[in-house]
Design goal:
The chain is an all-alpha fold and 94 residues long. The chain has a domain of 61 residues. The protein has 6 helices and no strands. α1 crosses α4 and α1 crosses α6. The chain is globular, with a radius of gyration of 13 Å.
Length: 94
């Protein structure tokens, strides 16, 4: 099942809100990306930033599980949303 671009953006915004409310994980994201609070707020509506948040969450299965369980969504939905955002297309090298 694929997800529309609008659906992917809505899910990514939920992920951003979830990340913003996670006092343990937000500093890790900000430290690893160099994003400050202003850039974080400004990035909410930017598909490339949304994609970076999904990429970050998908780095750790525990983060995926925590977010998806919190939102009541299937675990593979993050990957589907990421594929629908900029830079998410699979690259075929052959």
């Amino acid at each position: 099942m694929s997800i529309s671009k609008d659906g992917a953006e809505q899910l990514a915004i939920k992920a951003i809100v979830w990340l913003a409310g996670n006092d343990d994980l937000l500093p890790v994201f900000m430290g690893s990306t160099g994003v400050d609070e202003v850039a974080f707020r400004e990035g909410v509506g930017v598909p490339e930033f949304q994609a970076s948040v999904l990429d970050f969450i998908m780095m750790d299965d525990a983060w995926v599980i925590a977010f998806c369980d919190n939102e009541g969504i299937p675990y593979d939905r993050l990957m589907q949303a990421r594929a629908a955002l900029p830079g998410g297309a699979q690259v075929h090298w052959t």
